[in-house]
Amino acid sequence: MSYKLSGLNPEQQFSLNDGKLLPLMEEFYTIQGEGYNTGKPAYFIRIGGCDVGCHWCDVKESWDASLHPLTTTEKILENVLESKTPAVVVTGGEPLIYNLVYLTELLKQHNIQTYIETSGSYPLTGNWDWICLSPKKTMLPKEENYKAAHELKIIVFNKHDFFWAEEQALKVSKDCYLYLQPEWSKRHEITPLIVEYVKQNPRWMISLQTHKYIDIP
Q1: Which 8-state DSSP code applies to residue 16?
Q2: Is 39 left (phi over 0), alpha (psi -120 to 50) or beta?
Q3: Which domain CATH number covers 93?
Q4: Contact yes or no for 27/44 (Cβ under 8 A)
Q5: Run of H or E residues at 79
Q6: Beta strand extents in 5-92 (DSSP E only)
Q7: Which residues contact 24 (CB under 8 A, 6 or more apart)?
Q8: Number of folded domains in the chain?
Q9: Domain around 164
Q10: Mind listing the pLDDT tens digit for each residue in 71-126?
């Protein structure tokens, strides 16, 4: 990886490239609210930096990596271990901007399950027990990331997204779980459409942002 952040000295840039420093936006222990692992406890690590540019993104403050403190991967691991979590979810931003091999190596040494939520628009790095691929029209996944995905999660903002979801589903493996999730700001309009679509196309399932309904991070 060679993602560049302005103002770094050569040593910091080397550590960033090596995955030993990461721009940490936030971290918290909570319950996974979306997709296949809904309802399970997990420690979330949100890494700053994203150039995918979804207009409906609900964490646009994550886009500018320079706004978030560079944090050593060892410190992140220390915080994870204090939580006694069984699993870690790495998200963003777009986490695959960075080299995540070192982070997952540390987590695996402590028998912690590793999950990632990604648009798949950058090469896959790291050792993952679960890959949630959530493709975006603005910057499509790398072809090899489709086959690696355990779960395909399509955010539905309008009716055309159902057609796009089917196009994306053709690219993943036959064992990949397929989810349609209403974009939060349009959930009242979109959720009934998803319900009817899944009834007619039962290989798909509904993902809801349950953490927002029960008011947890």
Answers
A1: H
A2: left
A3: 3.20.20.70
A4: yes
A5: helix 73-83
A6: 21-31, 41-47, 70-72, 87-91
A7: 45, 46, 47, 48, 68, 69, 70, 71, 76
A8: 1
A9: 13-213
A10: 999 999 999 999 999 999 999 999 999 999 999 999 999 999 999 999 999 999 99
